[in-house]
Amino acid sequence: MNKNDIWAAIHAERHRLLDALSPLDDAAWQTPTLCNDWSVSQVLAHLTAAANVGQGAWLLSIVLAGFNPARHNDRRLRKYLGATPAESLAILRASAEKTVAPSKDYVAMLGEVIVHGQDIARPLGLDLEPEPAGVYEVARFFSERAFAVNSKTLVHDLTLEADDSSFKAGTGPLVRGKQLDLVMAMAGRPTYLTALQGDGVAVLAQRMR
């Protein structure tokens, strides 16, 4: 995928998430997600912040946060957290087509939308299926880079193999499953390990502890 394709995929996944969340009642927005201690509202605000913070603003924010990523993320999401779920949706919807990013690693931005979308969807029991082509690009990126998540280190000396696409990476004990489940495992979500097979799954589980 080229740069334009990646941005189109990012926009599509933002809209997919917005459509999935629109019918939720207010109580569902306080549901804990798979991302640390954040609620649905907080993860959505984090994604909205990512859609609006370019390189200069990101650098200023991390400096003002004392180079503390947790403090930086908390400050950014609070800025984009709506007073109501409807307002939070409206803020992201207004930003969904933006092409703003803190770096030129645009696949990392796509990975953020896909991973956080699943962080939200799974606890809510929502069927949120991202486009396979985009998931494939994120799987490749995560297996080769430790950027926003410590993915490359996590899967070092393991063979990753998707059973629903041509994705395959690495050498060593096998970890096999759907490419989306592999992406979520590479993002450090242990919940997804139960969907994977192979001798490498136990190794991956140990590294996540």
UniProtKB/TrEMBL annotation:
SUPFAM superfamilies attached to this UniProt entry: DinB/YfiT-like putative metalloenzymes
Family annotation (Pfam families): MDMPI_N (PF11716)
InterPro entries: DinB/YfiT-like (IPR034660), Maleyloyr_isom (IPR017517), MDMPI_metal-binding (IPR024344)
GO MF: metal ion binding
Domain of life: Bacteria
Occurrences of domain Mycothiol-dependent maleylpyruvate isomerase metal-binding (ranges): 11-100
Protein name: Mycothiol-dependent maleylpyruvate isomerase metal-binding domain-containing protein
